[in-house]
Amino acid sequence: MADGIELRAATHDDYDAVAAFTRDTWPDRDGGDYIPDIYHDWIEGDERRTVVADAGDDIAGIAQGVVLSDWEAWGQGMRVNPAFRGEGVATAMTHDLFDWTRGRGARVFRNMVFSWNVGGLGQSRACGYDPATEFRWATPEPDPDATPTLDVTADPTAAWRYWTDSDARAHLSGLALDEEETWALSELTRENLQRAADDDGLFVVQDDGTRGFAHRVRTYDRENEDGETETWAEYGVGAWADATAARSLFAAVAADAADCGATQTRVLVPETPRHVSDAAYCRVGVADEPDFVLAADLTRDY
User: Fold this and answer.
1) Do 156 and 280 fall into the same domain?
2) 90 and 151: one domain?
3) Same domain, 27 and 98
4) Chain centre distance of CA 116
5) Suppose 287 and one of 90, 91, 137, 144 were both cysteines; which one would form an S-S bond, judging by CB atoms 3.0 to 4.6 Å apart?
6) How far, rounded to the nearest angstrom, does the alpha carbon of residue 42 sit from its chain's CA centroid?
7) Is the Cβ–Cβ distance between 67 and 104 less than 8 Å?
8) The domain spanning residue 235 has which CATH number?
């Protein structure tokens, strides 16, 4: 990293400098950057480190690492001030977070990059990440009248048995939405499914055996571009055997979302031709583009 730039923990006093270069992170894309809107809450917490590259009279970059489990960590919010690009800031911040999370027991450090963000993908690879998986969002519309045609139960053991042998698990490297950290993925466990069942948020499709499942991880309120508050329901992963099972699974999700008072949904599904086309065939909305997940092996030296 260039001389005169030092890494340190972010503080609330850094807000103005950080907001100045993150408000317009992707000027050619719809929607702004989330960091200026959530900064003060975002940097708080014992299981996270938010690092800034302090250039003295300016902030050259910011990034955050979060410990998700006793062996997994997540990187997010990597932003480099355009005035300091090409000076090794991203690599220095990334390796600082690798070291910090490694010291707390993590052995893998993952991140997510939008598939259209070619610069972010190249930067991640240069910092030491390797490709891990890709997924897409399915967005069934909440519907109180949605009725699955196949039986739907809340059996966590059946869901776990299905997951362990599924092509969805193989494609996703065992990952699903994390229960605590939004926009983060971690390994799906049997305990996750049990908690979802206990919260009436597990949906297991049955038809002469288990044919698929989905589980709700959270609901939350978010302001849309018109300034109106929307309630979202997020589902950690959707996995199914065929389009018939998918149709019943999405119906169960649509009914559950409506029951939760949600107006928007998001279901993580594998980015495969079958899963994406099944969702389309079931007339369920899907995101225009996939998202990529990369992973760094923290047992290596960087």
Assistant:
1) yes
2) no
3) yes
4) 16
5) 137
6) 15
7) yes
8) 3.40.630
Number of domains comprising the chain: 2
Query: Would you say how long the chain is, in residues?
Result: 302
- Over 128-161, what HEC string results? CCEEEEEEEEEECCCCCCCCCCCEEECCHHHHHH
Angle at 183 between CA 178 and CA 189, to 5 degrees: 15
| Structural domain includes residue 115 | no
- The burial of 57, by beta-carbon neighbours within 10 Å (0-12 exposed, 13-18 middle, 19 or more buried), is given as exposed
* Residue 100 shares a structural domain with residue 209: no
Structural domain span for residue 276: 137-288
- Distance separating alpha carbons of residues 248 and 85, to the nearest angstrom: 49
Q: Are strands 72-80 and 59-67 parallel, antiparallel or unpaired?
A: antiparallel
* Pair (141, 282) in one structural domain: yes
List per-residue pLDDT tens for the chain, 302 residues long. 788 999 999 999 999 999 999 987 766 655 568 899 999 999 999 999 999 999 999 999 999 999 999 999 999 999 999 999 999 999 999 999 999 999 999 999 999 999 999 999 999 999 999 999 999 999 999 999 999 999 999 999 999 999 999 999 999 999 999 999 999 999 999 999 999 999 999 999 999 999 999 999 999 998 887 788 999 999 999 999 999 999 999 999 999 999 999 999 999 999 999 999 999 999 999 999 999 999 999 999 98
Nearest alpha carbon to residue 166 among 177, 154, 153, 176: 176
